[in-house]
Design a protein that fits this description.
The radius of gyration is 27 Å and the shape is globular. Helix content is about 45%, strand content about 25%. By secondary structure, it is an alpha+beta fold.
Length: about 500
């Protein structure tokens, strides 16, 4: 039986006062850090340190008042089968969500929370309000008990309408399906997309530079001019060194990011659910009910194939506003892990025996047009008189044709009367599997160019997003379209 009564409005742990103050101070710094830089570096503007000290004390006092008021007005409880969360003091807000609409109840713990020994509890739903259903300071034992009461698979409704936690059968144990070692983390980090990591670093640095330039325009312009002049006068050896240095930094960034996110990663199977634990500075504990999974997506690439690993993503019901926050992934899966998870979620795999239906070769021509010829034609008026441009054109068209051929090679689908699997990717290979009874809508699309060639595309939508099958035979597309709509209407299985 539960030892907490959630019918009574409850506050967070008193340690939440420290968290609220720190989060509020961090938000203030995030909003006004350019002004803070001015105060620090432009000494002429603030010669009177006494006035500056008074301003800092007033700010701290206001933050303390905000912290206390926010803490006192933050309440949560369960009433009439709904979870209710109240917060705010000037602008009060009341959030309610039916218990049967809750997707999962997860916990997270950042470095400050680890020091305070509290956790954040996040309640995920398919609605846009999900990102606001957070309780940031709960004792671990209280959070675990609250998870049990809120988790839909652990609730049963009595005849009187009250919600009681379902007792677990004796002997129920958890099974660790996947546990990542430091060597696994190293392989995962090395197999990441380092170009993307490098671009993230550049974008972040450029954003910081732009904001600093607005504050210190003269100095920033002088330094940037000197840097450009330095690069223009450099030889190929130095440029090669900078490229290698850029790649090395990208690899280190990928490794560091992997360790921070997936440290001590565990994928644990329980009765009807999976649970994921991971993180170094920000620990997370995510519950994934089997019935809430809309799609299972896995990806591999050249480096991942070398190590024999897959990156797997569980896609659950989400709204457009919090789609990325709901992605729960498991890196470093071996083929045995992948097949076990597919069997748990979808039953015996019968799709391997079905015929793979590939996109029409015209798909390659369309890809080559957009990826290859359109950029060439757009840049032609500006660079046509440069000999190196024509050399680049040949290389670009050849590279884009090869890229389009890789995409066509991996563009296929296979289905039976219960499930569908769709393949995609170019350099990497991505596959997505879902059950047909979870389809919510099907869209038949046909452009003028497709109609001339009796081709069309299908978009299959579920609660987590959509899957596209491009450029297949028109007659086949109509048959699949009609069958999927029929299956959606007559199926009596729950989609979540």
């Amino acid at each position: 039986m539960s030892n907490i009564d959630l019918s009574i409005p409850t506050r967070q742990s008193a340690k939440g006062l420290v968290l609220i103050f720190i989060f509020s101070l961090r938000q203030f710094i995030k909003m006004f850090w350019p002004l803070i830089l001015v105060v620090v570096f432009q000494e002429k503007l603030f010669k009177d340190l006494f006035i500056l000290g008074i301003a800092v004390l007033v700010l701290l006092f206001l933050l303390v008042v905000h912290t206390i008021l926010y803490y006192l007005n933050f309440l949560f409880y369960i009433s009439n089968g709904e979870f209710v969360l109240k917060k705010g003091y000037f602008r009060k807000k009341i959030l309610t969500v039916p218990l049967d609409r809750i997707q999962s109840v997860n916990t997270k713990q950042n470095l400050i929370q680890q020091v305070l020994d509290v956790v954040t509890l996040e309640i995920d739903t398919a609605g846009s309000v999900a990102k606001e259903l957070k309780i940031q300071a709960l004792e671990k034992s209280f959070a675990i008990e609250l998870q049990k009461q809120l988790r839909p698979v652990d609730l049963k409704r009595t005849e009187t309408g009250s919600d009681l936690p379902e007792e677990k059968p004796a002997g129920t144990t958890e099974e660790v399906i996947l546990k990542l070692t430091p060597a696994d983390l190293m392989r995962i980090g090395i197999s990441q997309n380092h170009l993307r990591a490098g671009l993230i670093i550049i974008a972040f640095g450029f954003q910081i530079f732009q904001q600093i330039q607005d504050m210190f325009d003269d100095k920033a312009e002088e330094y940037s001019s000197e840097f450009i002049r330095f690069i223009s006068n450099s030889n190929w050896a130095l440029i090669t060194f900078l490229v290698i240095f850029f790649l090395a930094v990208s690899v280190v960034f990928s490794l560091l990011r992997t360790v921070l996110k997936y440290f001590d990663f565990k994928l644990i199977k329980n009765e009807g659910t999976y649970r994921i634990e991971s993180g170094l500075l920000n620990k997370r504990n995510v519950i994934i009910p089997h019935g809430k999974v809309q799609e299972l997506k896995w990806e591999t690439g050249p480096l991942k194939k070398l190590f024999g690993i897959f990156h797997l993503v569980f896609k659950q019901a989400v709204s457009d506003q919090n789609r990325r926050q709901q992605l729960v992934d498991a890196p470093g899966c071996l083929s045995t892990h992948l097949e076990k998870l597919r069997t748990d979620l979808f039953g015996e795999n019968k799709l391997n025996d079905n015929i793979k239906i590939y996109s029409n070769p015209y798909y390659l021509r369309r890809l080559w047009l957009f990826y290859g010829w359109v950029p060439v034609l757009v840049s032609l008026p500006f660079l046509f008189d440069e000999w190196i441009y024509w050399l680049a054109v040949v290389a670009w068209l050849a590279g884009s044709a090869f890229y389009a051929s890789l995409k066509l090679k991996k563009r296929y689908f296979s289905m039976n009367n219960e499930q569908i699997i769709v393949s995609g990717g170019a350099i990497s290979h991505q596959l997505t599997q879902m059950e047909l009874h979870k389809i919510q809508a099907v869209e038949f699309r046909q452009s003028v160019f497709q109609k001339k060639r009796s081709l069309s595309s299908l978009s299959i939508m579920n609660a987590s997003g959509s899957i596209t099958i491009p450029f297949i035979d028109e007659t086949m597309a109509k048959q699949i379209y009609n069958y999927l709509l029929y299956h959606t209407e007559v199926s009596n299985k729950k989609w979540m």
